[in-house]
Amino acid sequence: MDRILEPELMVDKEQSEAYARADFAQVNQGFVDRFRSCFPKMTSGAMVDLGCGPGDIPVRFARALPSFRITAVDGSEPMIALAQQAVEEAAGRWPQPLRRFGPYLVRQISTMA
Description:
The protein is an alpha/beta fold. It has a domain at 43-113: Vaccinia Virus protein VP39 (Rossmann fold, 3-Layer(aba) Sandwich). 47% of the residues lie in helices and 17% in strands. The chain has 5 helices and 3 strands. The protein has a 3-stranded parallel β-sheet, covered by helices on one side. β1, α3 (56-64) and β2 form a beta-alpha-beta unit. α2 packs across α3 (56-64). Mean pLDDT is 80; it is low at 95-101 and 106-113.
């Protein structure tokens, strides 16, 4: 099967901010709930969120699984800025789970080793 890449990233600041304001709370929490349901004994380790967007899902994972080391990656600079903001805001409420969380900008996934 040939992989079809997304034709664009959300590189426009206003578009990224609009996406970040959208209410995906139920869907995003579903990722965390399904992971915990499928892997109940997995309480620590490392995880990577490729295409983290504004960072809501990795923040939810950090809250739910404080022993995990979470790396968030996105190709959009505005999304990374929003993710960093989400982490900083969440760290004030949940300092321990988020200490090791950090989004990184990766322009091409193929450069990751």
